[in-house]
Amino acid sequence: YQEREARSQDKKNRQASNDDLDEETKSWFRDQQEYCYVRGVAAYEEALRRGIAKECARAVLPLNTTTKLYMNGTVRSWITYFLVRMDKATQKEHRDVATECYKVFREQLPNIAKTLEEVYPEIFTNV
């Protein structure tokens, strides 16, 4: 599973969060994730054992269960995606996905990526 970090909700931006929680709260959150994951996987495996189809059985898995995601698009749609989803106002988890996609984009289309980084340094500086 993919452990998620505990962050507090931003007071103004509902898509933002802050890394300001105490260690006890963070530790509790890590423990709860592991507990839910272990219970969810056990329920999933039992559902399969009972003959329940995989697509039905996965309903008991926690949201932080690792999943493969396939994405495609045109160069133009990728640029739009990066400009919107790599912005600091975007939810952190989605920024992380967009940043990883951008790394592949930059590897495949370095000239376009270089232009994006020059025109929009506020978005592409820390990649």
Supply the helix-strand structural class: mainly alpha
CATH class of the largest domain: Mainly Alpha
H and E order: EEHHHHHH
Q: What is the strand content?
A: under 5%
- The proportion of residues forming helix, as a percent range, comes to 55-70%
Give the termini distance in whole angstroms.
Answer: 25 Å
Rounded to the nearest angstrom, the radius of gyration is 19 Å
| CATH domain fold name of the largest domain | Single alpha-helices involved in coiled-coils or other helix-helix interfaces
Total discrete domains:
2
Relevant terms:
single chain, 6 helices, about 55% helix, 2 domains, two-stranded antiparallel ribbon, Single alpha-helices involved in coiled-coils or other helix-helix interfaces, mainly alpha, about 130 residues
Short description:
The protein has a two-stranded antiparallel sheet.
Structural overview:
- With 127 residues, the chain is mostly helical.
- It has helices at 23-49, 54-57, 75-85, 92-108, 110-119, 121-124; strands at residues 8-9, 17-18.
- It has a two-stranded antiparallel sheet with strand order 1-2.
- A hairpin with a 7-residue loop joins strand 1 (8-9) and strand 2.
- Helix 3 runs antiparallel to helix 4 and helix 4 (92-108) packs across helix 5 (110-119).
- The longest helix is centred in the first third of the chain and has 27 residues, at 23-49.
